[in-house]
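ok so i was messing around last nite and threw this chain in just to see what happens. nothing serious, just curious
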Amino acid sequence: MHKTLFSIIESPAHPNFSDLYRQLEIDETKITSMRKTISALKKQQPDYIVAEFFYGYGNNYAGVNISNLDVLLYSLQKYSAHTKVIVLVDKSEYQHVGKLNDIIKLHDVIKYPVNNKQMQKVLSL
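result:
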């Protein structure tokens, strides 16, 4: 049985690992917004989610949230707690990612630039 993965693509920096996922027999669903991702979670619980981290400077995310991923992680608690979350982050924002573990335990955090070998290793853990 194939594993499933949601790629949440919110910026052009999100690397394309579609070929790698196919090689690893992982069925990828590409999604372009958190709202669409949360809606998809209600219908399908993926084995993995790969998403970029954007720190909530100022009040971009209503001032309460840490980043663009907070609402998604809270939704995972409700709909798909087994999903392994892989976060891609710019090294300048890396120090903020750890706070997300207070919401749900992250599977791994990878700093940009991310290559196939790194992603393959994380997916095999």
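not much to say yet. The beta strands are 3-8, 26-31, 48-52, 84-89, 108-111.
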